[in-house]
Each structure stands twice: as structure tokens, then as C-alpha cells.
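User
Take a look at the entry that follows and flag anything odd:
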Amino acid sequence: MSKIPIMLKSNGNWDNYGRFRDFEVDAIVVDDNANYGILSSTIAEQLSIDTSDKIIEIKYIVNENCPPMEIRNDMGVRAYMETKKENKNLGSYPLCISVRDFNMELAINNESTSAGSSGSLNLLEFPSSPAIEEYQSEIITESTQTYIEEGQVYQDKQTVAAAMKNYSVMHKFQFRVKRSSHRSYWLICVAESCKWHFKATSINDSTMFKIRSFSRQHTCCLMDETFIQRKRTAAVLGSMVVPKYCDPKTVYTPKDIQTDMLSEHGLNLSYMQAWRAKEKALQFLRGNPCDSYNKLPKYFYILEKNYPGSVVKLKKAADDCFLYAFVALCTSINGWQHCRPVVVVDGTFLKSAYRGIMLTASTMDAAGTIFPLAYAVVDSENDASWKWFFEQFKEAYGERPSMCVVSDRHESILKATSVVYPGLAHYSCMWHIWTNIRSKFKKGHLQLHELYFATARSYTMDEFNERMLKIEEVDLRVKSYLYDIGYHRWSRVHATVNRTFTMTSNIAESLNAVTKDARELPIFDLFEYMRTLLERWTKEKLSKAKGTFTYLGHKYNKELEDNSTLSQKLRVRASTDHIHTVLDGVKRYIVCLENKKCSCGQFQLDELPCAHALAALRHRNETYENYCSPYYTRKSLLLTYEMPVNPLPDEGKWEVPQHILDEVVKPPAGDKRQPGRPHKERYKTFDEIKSKKYKVSCGNCGGEEHNKRTCKNAPKKK
């Protein structure tokens, strides 16, 4: 055992750059095996700090490139001592001491709790009474205690008991309860001759418990196999790993629990013990999935109260079982007016204890990114659920001129839109049609893939017809299939309503990918995850919009720059003030600036000046601003996100009427997931499993499984 000299910096303050300023200097000497209690008490004694009404914060700086590290527990002291041993000079790694009053709310983040901190110390508000006013020390509300001493006050007996279970696991010993009642809690070591004991009693008639006596020294042989490890319970281990699961995207497996418990605490767990600890941690964090449905009425009430103008609906069956739930926040409703009226809808399955489908509706903002409009949870994708979804969507967003819907051609979506929105244009996702072609005709080679997508994106009828003839040469059945679907449902040039760049339902699929992990959450947590997602996206996208200094949003400005580069090589001949002939080599294009049209078709369908239009504008010394769609501008982007998604207060502070609290919502009847490992990916068809995403095809003979260089066949007839 050696002595470590430590410099103390006190009565200073931290600046914005993580530097401790205007401090006074002192020093202490402690043993290199000192724990947190010894270190903090030594500092308090040297600096004359009264720990009965003060909290000591201990921090030190490792290097200039990282923020200050705070010592909160024994593990933090050990890490500091090991660092200090490398350089025992008094001035190396000085401790920066800050002091706070107890009469303020103390919060220690979850990361420190998982590292074995001294717990989250919150000053609770109890009814005023002489019994409680007698004790002005901190009241411990968390059970993850690593340092326990006489005089500590806990909010109730359950917290004391849980803290001692955690303490015994950390220190690898067993205890037994000698006496337990609503007034006292007395523990002794399992070894009869050991003098270790712990005693806590209630403070007068309150629920709070205070540690009256604690002899931490064992007189038994702790190295005995009988006492080497206390039997771990799932509840104790689960409480230790709860912070790991706060973010649903975090992957923390039972194997990880085994590894961390062995390396950090010396606990050798079986896989089943680790798995049970994980399940217990998720239960602590998320509660019972069945109870989650009963929280929906008060949650929806708070949403309507905090976001006036939102459309929030909950539908139950006759027996009070959950049926449907729909949310469209007022921020999305307000921003919708500044986006092109193209709605992309899709459904994706839930992976929680009770099965279901999450339906989403979204569009693209002026930057070309996802703008979620509404989300709902239903029993399945059927006629009734989609009809109900579009009814609520229409109530929230109404119907706008030139509005259209893009989806994966689910029959229930087609029926629902025709009933709720009669005459509304409905388009199919190009990728979904291509998937059907591969599955139906076993045609997946690159040549047909390129032909199909080029045909769908054609800007003129001549281009479309020319490419359809090439598809016919490859396989007549594919052309017939596309004709039966209806050209107007997938072809840009045949569309009755201009959907510009939204040719697929990729934005809905991207939103599904973002919520992949959240779909394992209970329904209450799922809806709250979606709300916080909108809150975060709105803040981030508004910041990006304010940092945009071009007239157009990012995606459309990039498209315009590409067209501008192409326009540099074009020649222009003016016919009238508004009509120009643009020559591109031997090709000739007619541009009418007054009608915002070009014979290439791109100007009017993209609602963005094409290369030929930009050449004509440059010939007239005119800027492009008046020839772009207003839905592409920075101004529209700022208006889309001008209304923020404000955070909700803590659930414990919600003021909800009693009749809302009394409302009962039962989980869906007969939809509970079957026992066993949950299936997290959708079931793929045989053709999807068997076929590759892309097949190699030969440019010489058209065959598959080889390329032009290795081809040994005769060239195909043209």
C-alpha cells in the first residue's frame, strides 16, 4: 500500500471549453486503495465542507481533447488511482472540486448508473411534517447503490432491500433476513459466526427508511465456496443493465451481459441467467405490454392538449379491445401545405408481444427528404383498416388540387382510396412492379431491368414507345403485364397528375427502416418513439434549412446544377420573345418559356428548368427563379418546419381528467405473439430466396450466367 499526493482545486468554475477557472489550491494524501467514501470524506475534511447539506462533485482532466471526467463511485476512484500511479507528482491530474446544495434536484445520467454510480439522488416532495423536516439529508430513490453507509435515507423499504441485493452481488457474499416488518429491516451474514450485519428502520411514521447500523466487515471466510457468490436474481441483474436498453436501437445481447458482468463485476453467468436479466430489464423499462394499451387514452389526451389542431383517434371494439389508433400532429398538418401533394403510404408489421401493422403516410419536403404526415397501428392490412386510415387522413389533411397517392398496389389501398377519395389519382411504385415481373416471369437480368426503369421514367411518348418495343423483343409477356396494369399507374409520361420525382415508395420504405427497432416496443412506447422522431427531425431539418443559402432545396439545387453544366454546350436560336430553338448536336429542341415547356418533356414534368430551358434563359440574360416549382424553394422548406414539435412533460406530471384515466383499453383479442424466438424479418417468397437480386446477362447473346467477354454463343438477331 502506498500514499498518493493529490492537488485540489476548489471554489472555481467551469467555462464553456471544459477548463476550471478562478480556483484555490489545496492538497491531500490518500492510500492508493481508497474507495469513494474515503476520498470524498478526506476532501470534505480538508476543505471544511459540511456534507450534511452539500454535495461534492469531483472531476479531473485527462487531456485537452476530452471533457472532464467525473468520479462518482468506487470504480471511478480506482480508474483515477491507476492513472495517477503513472505520475505521482503533486501537480499531475489535480482534482477539481465543485460544491452544490442539497436543496436542488440532483440528476445523474443513465450511463453513470450503469457504471455503478451512487444512484440518482432526487429530493422528493413529501407532505410537511416534523418527522420528515428533522432529516435534511438526501433521500435516495434508486436501488443501484455501490456505496452504503450509516445515516443514508431511502424513500421506502423496497428501495433499501433492492439496494442491499445489488450490494451483495457486487461484493460477492450472501445474507439472510433476520427481521422484516413495515418498521424495520435487519440483515445478517449467512455464516453464523460472522459479525456482519445491517439494520434500517423507518423514520417515525413515514415510509422512509434510514440506515441505523451497518457493520461492513466480515469475520467469516469469504473465499469459502459456500459464500463466494450470492445467488443472482434476474431482478437484481436486470436493474443493473436497464440503461443499456434505453435506446431501442442499441443491440445488447445476453452474451454481452455475460461478458460485461464477468469483466466488470466478476460474475460468471449462464446464458439463461443473462437472458432472464435482459427480459427483466426490458420489463422494468417498458412495463407490461398488456398495460401499454391502457395508457393510450391519457397519452392521446396529452397529445391533443399540447399540440392543438392535431388529429388523434383511438378506436376500440365492443368489448373494449384495441382496434385502431391514428396520429397526425399539428406540425405535420401545418407543414403539408408547403409540400407537393404526393402522399406515399405503406404498411409494415410490428414485432411486439401483440401482433399488428403500422401504417404510415409521408411526402417529400423542399430538400427532397422524408416528411412524415401520419402514422397508425391497426390489426392487419385489410379493406376496413385502410378505409379507416384514409378517413382519418382526410379529416386531418383534406383534399388538395393535383393530389395523388403512391403505394405498393395493395388491393385494400386501391379500394380505400376509391371510396374515401373518389377520382383521386393512384400510382404504383416502380420497384414493386419490377419485383412482380421477376417473380411472375422469372425475368431478372440486367437488360430488362434497365429497359423497364428507363421506360417508366420516359419524358416523351416517343421515348416510351421506343423502349416498350425493346421490352417486347425481350419478352412479350412483360409488355402485356405492364399494359394490363395500366400505363398511367407507373409511367411518368402517362400520369394524369404530375408526381415529378416521386416514382417509388422508397420514402415509406426508408421510414420503415428507421422504425425497425422501435417496432419491437409496446404500443405506448412506439407512439412516443414516433413523436420524438418527429421532434428530432423537425429541429435538425429546420437548422439545415436555415443553413441553406441557395434559392432551391439541396436535392433540386443539385439537379439544377447538373442541368446547368449540360446547358453550356448547347446553341440557342430565338424565334420569338418566349420561344427558342435549342440545338444539341444534330438534335433540335423547342423551348417555350412562357408556358414552361420543352419538347424534351423534362421542363414541364419535373417543374424545373431542363438544360435546354437554362440555355434559353442564359440567352435572354434571365434567371431561373421564376421557372421553378414553389415546392422546391428554401422559403417552402422553412415554412414546412416553422412549427416545432415541443417536448412532452414527464408522465408523472400529466394532468389528465378522471374520466380519461378510467377509460379501459384491452389488448387486441387473439393477436398475441406465439411463444418462442420472435421472427423479426418478413417471410420471403420462394422466388426471392432462390433468385439473386441481379442476374448477370450477356450483351452479345442475351443469355444469363455469363457476360459478353466469356460468351461462346452466336450474337442475337437484332
Summary: Residues 242 and 281 are 5 Å apart (CA to CA). Confidence is low (pLDDT under 50) at residues 102-136, 223-230, 685-691. The chain is about 35% helix and 20% strand. The first helix runs from residue 36 to 47.
